Amino acid sequence: MTATLEERVEALERKLAEMQAQPWSSSPVKKDWRATVGWANNSKLHEAATKAGEEYRRSQTYEKEIEARGGAGY
């Protein structure tokens, strides 16, 4: 069965009206950085990632950076 263009548009308009009638679509959640700050507090995975990042940053030195660039200084 092949629907005509008009039938397809009508079906889309009905579906859109149904979706707009949903409560979640009428009041969108405001998403900004304040909604996600602190979401990982007290997480063992977050603590492990933070510790690994700190250890990596401490391991980096000016000498290692120069060496990685082929010995050329700035």
Helix/strand order = HHHH
Which blocks of ≥5 consecutive residues have pLDDT under 50?
none
Q: Tally of extended strands?
A: 0
Report the sheet with the most strands, covering strand number, pairing sense and barrel closure: none
Number of helices: 4
Structural class: mainly alpha
> Mean pLDDT, as a whole number?
81
β content, as a range? under 5%
**Helical percentage:** 55-70%
- Provide the gyration radius in Å: 27 Å
Shape: elongated
Cα distance spanning the termini = 72 Å
Question: Brief description of this entry?
Answer:
The chain is mainly alpha-helical and 74 residues long.
Describe the structure.
59% of the residues lie in helices and 0% in strands. With 74 residues, it is mostly helical. It has helices spanning 5-21, 23-26, 44-59, 62-68.
